[in-house]
Design goal:
With 329 residues, this protein is α/β, with parallel strands linked by helices. It folds into two domains: 200 residues, inorganic pyrophosphatase (n-terminal core), CATH 3.90.1640; 115 residues, Diaminopimelate Epimerase, Chain A, domain 1 (Roll), CATH 3.10.310. A seven-stranded parallel β-sheet has the order 1-7-6-5-2-3-4, sandwiched between helices. Strands 8-9-10-11-13-12 form a six-stranded mixed β-sheet. Strand 2, helix 2 and strand 3 form a beta-alpha-beta unit. The mean pLDDT is 93.
Length: 329
């Protein structure tokens, strides 16, 4: 659908919708994280400096953990879109279904939909699709877009982009991190982003009871007999949602030396949200795709119909087949 662009730098076709000025919508996906909020806020603030009127929002509100992001107070839950837009932008959103129908409204209300993403399984749903799977983070792409637009790189914009790059790369730990990632991170720090502020805001603002609940969650970690598969299954209500949202729980079973694939299963509203993490030699994206999800080779996710026990059985069976090298069914 529309114009396809896959290079590491934005083409003239990608840049064209951002010319002039008008009314723009920065549209996020369900349960927005720092990857999407940081990129949308950075791009939106840059457009405002060029005379655009910008609306920020998506199906769900921004989490309290990310209240430090400059401009995040303007991000609103949306049920319907108000009026028309000259430009609608989605970042780090490979599947348009994750907008819970807002993308369909955007197609009617927006003249041009621009889809900027680094997930290789992106559905190419925009009028303009800039997909660069070599980018470690969508924040890298938005940085290059702002440079091409000659937009000012203010401390607020730099903080949003640095946070997006930081979280999208697993704190610069994933195997797709490149010298380009660190070059961009350095430029963002030079422009005013403060790595210590970002790290403190993300990891050192736990509530007094958070460690109790973290212990409760980690007591549920299980490991397969051969040590290659680690998982954590959380029934609905077992741990407060605010704690789950503020912790990368899937990284705890992933940190076990023998584990090749880690899995977090969270029961919520009759569904089970699944996060998968691998260590390089197992493509967890292919596992997630079996359940209608996607992501990256080492970090993917999906949503599976409940109940939790059945979803766990299905997902762990698929992971075991991948670990054993069995063909994908």
């Amino acid at each position: 659908m529309g114009i396809e662009h896959t290079d590491t730098l934005p083409s003239s076709a990608v840049l064209a919708p951002f010319g002039g000025r008008g009314r723009a919508l920065m549209l996020g996906h369900v349960h927005p994280d720092a990857d999407v909020l940081g990129t949308l806020l950075a791009l939106g603030l840059a457009l405002e400096s060029r005379g655009w009127s910008v609306t920020y929002g998506g199906p769900h509100p921004a989490p309290a953990l990310l209240a430090f992001l400059p401009g995040v107070d303007r991000y609103r839950p949306l049920r319907t879109l108000d009026g028309t837009f000259d430009l609608v932008v989605l970042t780090d959103c490979p599947n348009p279904d994750r907008t819970e129908g807002l993308i369909d409204q955007a197609r009617r209300a927006g003249k041009v939909i621009v889809n900027v993403d680094h997930h290789p399984d992106n559905r190419r749903y925009g009028h303009v699709n800039w997909i660069d799977s070599t980018a470690a983070a969508t924040g890298e792409m938005v940085y290059e877009l702002l440079r091409a637009l000659a937009a000012p790189l203010t401390p607020a914009i730099a903080t949003n982009l640095f946070t997006a790059v930081h979280t999208d790369t697993g704190s610069f730990r994933y195997s797709n991190v490149t010298p380009r990632t660190f070059t961009i991170a350095a430029a963002l720090v030079a422009a005013g982003a403060r790595p210590e502020l970002v790290s403190q805001s993300l990891y050192e603002r736990r509530a007094p009871d958070a460690l109790h609940w973290l212990g409760e969650a980690l007591s549920r970690v299980e490991v397969s007999e051969d040590g290659q598969l680690g998982w954590l299954a959380l029934p609905s209500g077992a741990v407060p949602e605010r704690v789950v949202e503020s912790e990368e729980l899937v990284n705890y079973p992933r940190s076990i030396a023998t584990v090749r694939v880690a899995c977090l299963l969270r029961e919520r509203d009759g569904q089970v949200k699944v996060s998968l993490r691998g260590k390089g030699d197992v493509d967890v994206q292919r596992i997630a795709a079996q359940f209608g999800g996607g992501g990256h080779v080492n970090a993917s996710g999906c949503t599976v119909a409940g109940p939790l026990a059945e979803a766990q059985r299905a997902v762990l069976t698929a992971v075991r087949r991948a670990l054993d090298g069995s063909p994908v069914s």
